[in-house]
Write a structure and sequence with these properties.
Order of helices and strands: HEHHEHHEHHEHEEHHEHEHEHEEEHHE
Strand order of the largest sheet: 3-4-2-1-5-7-8-6
Oligomer: single chain
Helix content: 25-40%
Strand content: 15-25%
Shape: elongated
Number of helices: 15
Number of strands: 13
Amino acid sequence: MVADLNAAFLPTSCPLLVVKVGSSLLVQPDGNVRRQWLETLVADISARHKAGQRIVIVTSGAIALGARRLGFEKGGRSSLADAQAAASVGQIVLSGIWADLLGAQSLAAAQMLVTLDDLEDRRRYLNIAATLDRLLGAGAVPVINENDSVATEEIRFGDNDRLAARVAQAAGASGVILLSDVDGLFDRAPHLPGAMLLPTIAKIDGHVRIMVAEGSSSGMGSGGMASKLDAADIATRAGIGLVIASGLRDHPLAALEAGGPSTFFSPRDGGSARKSWLGGRLTVKGRIRVDAGAIKALSSGSSLLPAGALSVEGEFKRGDVIDISDDDGIAVARGLSEYDAVDAARICGHRSSELADILGTVPRSVLVHRDQLVLL
C-alpha cells in the first residue's frame, strides 16, 4: 500500500512535479559543485520531460558557492550581509551550472528568483503562477531560488523546503520531492539505535512534530527536518503529495521510482486555490483570539462573528491576513479580516445588532467571512 501511495506522486505519473535540491547535495564541504551527481539528476529530469511530465526545480546552493569564491567563513552565513553578498556571486554560478546541464539535454533553463513577499502578496503570487504556466507550456524547466541577495530577515523563507511547497501551490503541481541528505522522517534521531524510517505520514499532528530532529548532517544548508515538516504541511493542505528522499545516490529520481527509501506525506482533500494560498502563508498581520463557541462554529463552516471574539492583537487593515486562535494563542484558522485592527477591537464580544451604534456606520456583519477563511 505504501508503494501505491508513493507511486501516485513520482515523476512517471505526476503531471507536474517540483523537485527541490538541498545545498548539501549540490555543494561539497570544500565548496566545489557535485557536478557528476548533478548530471545524473538532470538525466533523470530529461527522461521524465521526454515522457511528458513537467518539472520545476527549486535549488539551493547560491550562498555556499558564493562564500567559497569570496573566501567567507561559515559558508557565508555568519551575518545577513555576508549571506546577501555570497548569494549575489553564487547565484550567477548556480544558474550557469543548471543552464549548462539542462542545455546538454536540450532543455531550456528559466531562472526565477523570488522572496517571501512575492508569494505572500496575492497579486504577485498570481503573477508568478502565470509566468510558471507560460514557461512550462513552452517546454522550459524553471529553476527557482530565494533571492537571498535582497531578502532581509523579515522577508526571507530562510530555507528552500517551504519555498518548494509554495512554488508547488503557485505552479499547480500535484507532487513535491525534497531531495536531501536523509532518507526521510525517522521515529527518532536517525543516528540513535533502533531508529525506523516512517514510509507514510497520513496526518501531521503533534506526535509527528515531536519526532522531528532539528538540523542537517552537513551543516551547510539552512533547513532541517523541521523545515521539511513545515513544507509538507503547506503542500498537503493544498492537496499536494510530498516526498522526502535521499539525494546521496546517483540518479535519485530513478532510484525513488524503483522503490528507494523515502517518507511520503499524504495530501489532504484540496480546497479552493485561494484557501490553499491562505493556509500556506508564512506571515500574518495580526490575530483575533476567540472563545470555544466561536471555534465550534468555525469548525462547522461558519464565519467569525464579533460576538465570539475575545481580543485583537497586531496592526492590520481590512483585507490583511490574520490568524484566529483560541484563548491560549493556538491558531485554529486563518483568513482575511473584514475590519482593521482598531475597529475589530471595538466590536469584540458584541452582537451584530450593536455594531452600528458602536461604529457609527453601517457595519459588516462578520469579522472574517467563511469564504475568506481556512481552518488550520
